[in-house]
Amino acid sequence: MVPSVTVSTNGAATTKAKAEKEAKAKKEARAKKETEAKKEAEAKKEAEAKKQAEAEAAAQAKAEQEKMNVLKQAEPTANANYPGKNLGLPPITAPPLPISAQQQAQLQELNNKYFSNQISPEEYFKEREAIIGGQ
After folding, report:
1. Widest pairwise Cα distance in the chain
2. Strand stretches in the chain, DSSP E
3. Which residues contact 106 (CB under 8 A, 6 or more apart)?
4. For residues 91 and 106, what is the distance between their CA atoms, to the nearest angstrom?
5. Residue 96 confidence (pLDDT)
6. 132: CB partners within 8 A, 6+ apart
7. Of the candidates 68, 113, 57, 34, which has an alpha carbon nearest to the alpha carbon of residue 128?
8. CA 31 to CA 49: how far, in whole Å?
9. C-beta separation of 119 from 113 below 8 A
10. How far apart are the first and last CA of the chain?
11. What pTM was estimated for this model as a whole?
12. Average pLDDT, consecutive stretches of 10 residues, N- to C-terminus, the chain (135 residues)
C-alpha cells in the first residue's frame, strides 16, 4: 500500500508543476507582447517625428526660396527703367593735380619704393618734400 500513496503524491506534484509552467509561459508571452508593442509604438513615434521634421525643413526651404524670389524681383536690372537711372548728368571726374606729369611719375616711383619697404619713412618724406617743393 505504501507504494500507491507515493504514486498519487507524485501525480499531484506533476500536475502542479505543469500548471506553474503554463502560467510562467503565459506570463512570458504577455511580457513579450508588451515589449513588442512598446517597440512598435516607439518606432511609430520616431517615424512621425522624422516625417514632421522633414515637412518643417521643406516648409522652411520653400519660405527661403520665396524670400529670394521677392528679393530678386525688388532688385533693378541693368535694362530696367527706374527713377534716377539716367538723369543726363556727366560722371564726376577728379580735378587735375597741381603738379606736373614728371612730378607725378616721381611721386609714384617714390610711393612704390616706400610701400615695398625699400626706404624708411624719414627718407620718404624728405624725398617727397624735395619733389613737391621743386614746383
Report:
1. 148
2. none
3. 131
4. 29
5. 86
6. 99, 103, 107
7. 113
8. 27
9. yes
10. 148
11. 0.36
12. 51 84 91 92 90 89 85 63 68 85 94 96 95 77
